Amino acid sequence: MHKNSSNHTAPAWSLRFLQWYCPDYLLESIEGDLEEQFEQDVSSIGLRKARLQYTKNVFLFFRPGIVLRNKFSLQLFNSSMLQNYWKVAIRNMARRKLYAFINSFGLSIAIACCVLIYLYVMDELSFDQFHENKDRIVRIHSTSFDEEKYKEGDPLPYNTSAWLPGVLADVMQDELAEVEYVTRFNSGTEGVMQHDDKIFKQSTAFVDSGFFRMFSFPVIKGSTHKIFRHTNEAVLTSAVAEKFFGKEDPIGKTFSFFINEKADYVVAAVIEAPPANSSIDFEMILPSSSRPYFENSAKQWNNFSYPTFVQLRKTSDLVTFKPHLDSLIQKYMGPSYDRTRVREKIPAEIKVGEFDYIPLTKIHLAPHISWHKVSDKKYSWILAGIGLLILIIACINYIVLSLATSNARKTEIGVRKVVGARPGQLINQFSFESLLLSFMAMFTGIVLVVTLLPMFNEYTAKSIVLTFGNMSTVLAMMLILTITIGLTAGFYPAFILSSFKPVTILKGKNSARLQTPFAKAMVVLQFTLSTLLIVSSVIMYRQMEYITSKDLGYDADKVIAIETNAGWNRTSDEMIPLFRNALSQERDVISVAGTSASFNRGWSRYGWQVADENKWAYVFRVDEAYLDLFSIELLEGRNFDNTADSSAVIVNEAFVRDMGWTDPLSEYVNWQEDTVGKGSPVIGVMKDYNFLSLESEVEPLFLGSKRPDFGRLTTILVKLGPGKTPEQLSKVEQKWKQTFPDKPFEYSFVDEDVARQYQSHERWMKIMGISTSFAIIISCLGLFGLAGIESLNRVKEVGIRKVMGASVFQLMVLLNRKYIMLAFIAFAIAAPISWWMMKQWLDAFKYRITLSWELFGITLLTGLAIALITVSYHALKAARTNPADTLKYE
Amino acid sequence: MSKEYLGEFEELVLMMVGILQEDAYGNAVVELIKERVGREVNLSAVHVTLYRLEDKGLVKSEMGGATQLRGGRRKRIFKITNAGLAMLQTMKEMRIDLWKLVPQLKMVGI
After folding, report:
1. A551 within some domain
2. In angstroms, what separates the C-alpha of A421 from chain B's closest C-alpha?
3. Does A22 touch chain B (CB under 8 A)?
4. Residues A502, A605 within the same domain
5. How does DSSP classify residue A640?
6. With pLDDT > 90 as the criterion, what percentage of chain A qualifies?
7. Distance between CA atoms of A332 and A301, rounded to whole angstroms?
8. Where does the record place the Transcription regulator PadR N-terminal domain (chain B) (predicted)?
9. Are residues A629 and A578 in the same domain?
């Protein structure tokens, strides 16, 4: 009797949707009413439209007036059934401790990963948000034509730079109505700071007085109100104040600061150090006018060395700012742009240059404009991607394991159904169980986050701390994540489990092999993701190994670089022979040399014209001991002579190639475009060595020795002999203190400096490594659980096979065959994807490993081995059990 | 007696429940409104209104009357309560009182 009178049926999934959201006590009548209307519609407007109408109606019923009535009903049912669900869930977990552990631990790791990544992204987005006037502060940058890019066919052949003419700040302040305050900001200049007996190397920033009106760095002591009226005032951060003045009040105290020459400053204020998420960072601040060469550079339009920040008036409009800036630039830079256009033959449709601005809050994520703390959104995406992968893998574990263990639950479901449980209630029950589990996982997750945070900070070069403030958002985030995971992971199993037919279950037709294609697909997906991560991290590891062990063409072993800290002048040059003499008696010191910049400690590059062609090369000034110290090979010619060779240069092979010389020793390098003389004579050719990072090729380079035009010898290199390094170092330090009592002994190992170039790659390799191991752990846990259940289900089959004479080996093959297949499929999917991804990554290096199939082969074998080891435990156990034990109770 | 305010649509639905007597359920109300007032209303809107009226105690409901047409599902039959009747009554009287206060407007021709 209770049968639909017509053959036309309403769309099943909309009905299910209705059943899902509709409170039980209303469901029947609403369903009925809808059905009735549907039948009417079928006869009046046709089946297709009627079905559409039905679905539309179901969605219209999805309104607060209906859905919110659930709360009331949920509470009702909670009080009666919740206890039971709780008890059953706990018993189930207690019965299968291992699987409960696998599930919750996997989810914990996933939750912890996601939270850490969330913290990372939040930190990236929080940059420079703490300034009160952040919406009105912009940084100006210049865009200029780049011939190289133009030749390569780049549609936007420009370079963008935040380093601007020093005079721009003054001119903008005077001539642009929109500008309220303006400041130049140069940071990271190092000098020697002295107060009484305290002498340390100290880095300083140079700014204008507008800086303190624009940016919100709280003043702790003193005042920045009338700062820099006197050009000998200084502002310290509290750390620096404490370092030099200890407990005493620093305000009004005097210290000396030495960059190129010594100058005295009075401490005017102590301010709070900028937080880690500030693009503007400094340890102490001096007025811009104290910056070396300020008098020369600050009035020029062709000296680009001052980053410039502007605060606009409240009333002013950004729309008018840009055109006004444009016309200002046209006024001052126009003629120079025109000259450049003629000289470099820049076509009319290309701009020579222009000035633009970027809001303060966008600086951090604008990697195309170089800045010392800039980052790339790409990293956030990569991390988010990794987090998502791990999350998916963990959820899959839950789904697959719940399906696989469903066998044991079938009887329970059957009984519940017979007693009168509705599908909705069963779905609720299983969702409740998965929520319970994910909440358990959440607590472990919190512990994991707290313990992993220091390591995470190290790898991502962040300094995120869990404070009371962000803890609440983290907890909220965790809660959301937990509920989402609980519901999504529990959703599918809940539906499958609640759809079992009680009759079949209770009759005892139980078979729970891993038959569902869904579960198989999930395992393949999981393995694919893991393989992807394995391949990526193996390749990254190989590349980093290649880079760190590649022969660079020089030997930097046990070479230390000491900064002279005497400035860019003659004093520096003269310190080298002095120190060489001082160390001449030391048996542990092999040689001492000077250079204008040690490896990865800066460089300089010159450009000049040869027969109308633009040439450029890197230039370092070195002394005659340099080549020997680094064992750089001379192919032709000779080293610098101690006495002569004032303008002579030694070039590298790349330089010779670039010039197209056949007899380099008879050539001259006219790098200063001397119209009278021929330039610098070439006295030697050295073998190419990687003086830059391996991300680029060996570029043209020449070394000069005597004339200050090549640079100043600001770094002393000391090569130590065999023996215990710490003792040798203390001897060198002792000599340094004797020879230069007023200079700090600041040294670094050259090979460490070189390695630091690859820091960010190294970091990503570590991050990949960690996430790979997480992914592998979670997948293996899942596979382990799955294999366990599978072998348990086939225990009788195995017993019978054994009785019939199957060997342990045959049984192993039987039980493992499927997983091997799945692993192969996963590999076939993962290999091309990871190959493509890694090709992108490797493109950043000019020197790189080739992606060989051998590499993928190794990964495949590793993956297979891991999978096999994981599943074999159970297979072996099943294959070795005495068949009598498994078969006897039949 | 509830002083609660009754919306226009609520009043309409309440009225229909009163008219339909023993046969007042969702679809019937929709049909009747269409027939009597000539207004196309949505089933879900009627349902929500009925539940709201029930919350206010103006109607009560019970399950009953399964037909084959409904796939064997029972109807939720709504019945107007005394409170509901009183509410309709007061609203009607209030309207008449107010109408009396309106100056004798006449529909004047052109």
Report:
1. no
2. 18
3. no
4. no
5. P
6. 8
7. 8
8. 20-89
9. yes
pLDDT in tens, A527-545: 888 888 888 888 888 888 8
Say whether B44 and A26 touch across the interface (CB within 8 A): no
Burial A174-213 (b: 16+ CB within 10 A, else e): eebebbbbbbbbbbeeebbbbbeeebeebebbbbbbbbbe
Binary contact (A29, B44; C-beta < 8 A) = no
- For chain A, the domain total comes to 4
Query: What predicted TM-score, i.e. pTM, was given to this entire model?
Result: 0.67
| Fold category of B8-101 in CATH | Arc Repressor Mutant, subunit A (1.10.10)
- The predicted model gives A615-626 an average pLDDT of 86
Cβ within 8 Å of B, A 46-105: 57, 60-61, 63, 65-66, 69
Q: How confident is the model at residue A2 (pLDDT cuts 50, 70, 90)?
A: very low
**Mean pLDDT, rounded, for A62-78:** 64
A595 in any annotated domain: yes
Q: In terms of residue numbers, what domain contains A495?
A: 377-546+759-887
Q: Do A539 and A682 belong together in one domain?
A: no
The pLDDT value recorded for residue A791 is 75
CA distance A7 to chain B (A): 11
pLDDT at A260 over 80: no
Domain check: are A352 and A409 in the same one?
Answer: no
Domain stop point among A25, A46, A67: A67
Amino acid at A341: R
Cβ contact B70–A61 (<8 Å): no
By residue count, chain B amounts to: 110
Q: Given an 8 Å threshold on Cβ–Cβ distance, is B27 in contact with A69? A: no
Q: Are strands A233-237 and A262-271 parallel, antiparallel or unpaired?
A: parallel
Question: Tens digit of pLDDT for each residue in A337-346?
Answer: 888 888 777 8
Report ipTM for this prediction: 0.85
Q: Within a domain: residue A47?
A: yes
